[in-house]
Amino acid sequence: MGIRWRYLWAGFFVMLGACVQTPPPVPASGAVTAGSECRTPFARIAFDFEGASASTCAITGEREFDVLITPEHAPPINPSPWYAFRYESTGDALVTVNLRYLSGAHRYAPKWSDGNAVSELPIELSEDSKSATLRLPPGKGQVSAQELITTADHSADLRRWGAALGAQPFTLSRSHDGRPVEAIRLGRTDGPRLVVLLGRQHPPEVTGAVAMRAFVDELVERLAGDPQAFADHQFLIVPLLNPDGVARGHWRANRGAADLNRDWGDFNQPETRAVKAWLDALPASVRPVAMIDFHSTSRNLFYVQGDEEASAAQQRFRAAWLTGKENALPGYPFTIEPRNANPGSGTAKNWFHATFAAPAYTYEVADTADRAATRDAARHFAAALPTALETLKD
Ligand SMILES: [Zn+2]
User: Fold this and answer.
1) Helix H or strand E segment including 43
2) Which domain holds residue 271?
3) How far is the CA of 296 from the centre of ligand 1 (A)?
4) CATH number for the domain including 36?
5) For residue 251, how far is its CA from the centre of ligand 1 (angstroms)?
């Protein structure tokens, strides 16, 4: 930590008593977090919208603020420091915001939005990546770790897909906060072969959501053109498994302080339990044959079953769907990473594979992936799915 940072830290603690609001009380079930704000006569930053981080701010100048980026529960927690705030200023001077990571280090390049276009902002990063300084254009705008895809966006997607195919989104369950965990069933509802698509178990993993949205768009367009496009398959699609985490700007967990992708097996959380209950209630004639779980990490990859535990049919599926395309999709290089199950890991990947003897993959998109290339690749993978699914049939 350089001299400049030490000086700012000292300043921060001096300001702490005067300027930081007391954290808001834990809201009643279903309520929206109030968030905090910092205001000077010239500028204001606020954390008062869905997806905003539960951050604390301090005033360090007329148009300068510190923002403390903290996780939703004590470490250990995956280092995905999410931040999102909005600001307004008067005059034509820049607004300076110093992000300070109290756990983890800077991961996501800031995205600036005026409500229309989203652009990436330059930052000055400290040597230890524990602080980042942003200089914001005057006026007003919103800054977030990744572009915001909110509950309302996911809900609108479900309604759009439903309208295209005459299907009705439904609520699988309610989260701890009382938010709906919504799903839709597409394709032949009497189709005996079920493909499960999951998204947003981990709130900041927005690039996974970008891929999933394009993937389902492609499925929907194919099914709209030809209801038999996926033969005897149907889909259960759950794009937002962790609505509380997304709404509250969490780094990883749901409102029960649980990593949902470690709960498949225990099913202690309402969101994961709801998917299992829905599957349990299926008639014996309908069985899951594949599962794809969309996430984000540092690079594009698919976690797949290792050769030891993949049946011949599952190996055929992997070869038909993924193999040989690693460097073939424009702007979207990826790797295929076989991993044998770590018993009791609690991931959706391992639970679906162990329970249904089906290929169950984690579809990981790089944090920094080109968004257009991510969408194009996702459409390619969706288009290639019918042929790959056929290889699972003995
Ligand atoms: Zn993840």
Assistant:
1) strand 43-46
2) 151-390
3) 6
4) 2.60.40.3120
5) 10
